[in-house]
Amino acid sequence: MEPLILIIDDDEAVCASLRVVLRRAGFRSESVQLPAIALDRVAELQPDLVLLDMNFTVDTSGRQGLKMLEKLLALNAKLPVILMTGWATVQLAVEGMKLGAKDFLAKPWENRQLLQSIKTILSLQGGIRQKERALGFEHIVGEDASLLQVLDMARQVSPTNASVLITGESGTGKELIAEAIHAESQRADEAFVKVNLGGIPESLFESELFGHVKGAFTDARTDRQGRFSLADGGTIFLDEIGDLPMANQVKLLRVLQEQTFEVLGSSQQQKVDVRVLSATNKSLEQMVQEGAFREDLLYRINLITLHLPPLRERPGDIPLLVEHFLSRLEQPYG
Prior knowledge:
Elements: E1 4-8, H1 12-24, E2 28-32, H2 35-45, E3 49-53, H3 63-75, E4 81-85, H4 90-99, E5 103-106, H5 111-125, H6 145-157, E6 164-167, H7 174-183, E7 192-196, H8 205-210, E8 211-212, E9 224-225, H9 227-230, E10 235-239, H10 246-258, E11 260-262, E12 269-271, E13 275-280, H11 284-289, H12 295-301, E14 304-307, H13 318-333
Parallel strand pairs: 1-2, 1-3, 3-4, 4-5, 6-13, 6-14, 7-10, 10-13
Antiparallel strand pairs: 8-9, 11-12
């Protein structure tokens, strides 16, 4: 039976939208709009995962959502919860993750990111093993020679374990290329874990990437596996790596060099086997010259560099993309 997702949100429009997204992705879903009965519904339905809004009409500070999170985890400490809010703040993210939430998404959410987070978390929980493979190169739209040259090189490096740095402006499809490389690799049946390094608060970096044990810091009430553990045996995609602060670059470099790390709050070394794909819209070479990016880290992540040309440099692909997006919209919207 497909995993059951429970949505706790007082906005019926949000609930309806999420139900559609989840249904099309192959999940079962239920929703509850009254916080007062949410715990009863959790006890009744025993969901595999909860999407929890943090801002109810009676309280837009997010505090009611944090209290609800505490009650949910008191009811079932192993219940995975993803926090959602239209009033996103770094402080709420920090507090929610310390309390035991598995992820934090801001509204309006991006469907792809939401579904990837759900699948990764459920895979960890044993609810699903990502059945669907990542999309391969055949799903990338374009016939321009500059793009085809990049795709040809990407296909050649896919079966290897080489680290790949994907560069290009925002919107050029760096994540799509990373997914395609994973899909065509020998690790295709294992996890593809995306990490948006630019979206992780500096204080949460170690906890997010390496995990933490219960009691590692104030409010660390449960053990938490990090993204490297989730990606073990598969591929980790380090997006926006150019946004990583210098202090955290050192910590990341150590893991890439030694393929080991320490879970926050534990002195035991944990070995990990991951392929590393990275992406940035910045010039890391220039950042190295400016002292903003470590040269040894750049050496580690760019054994192969793929640069994606912007659409304005391949205008012949515009009609193909228009047709592609129209065909995607035609079926669901008529």
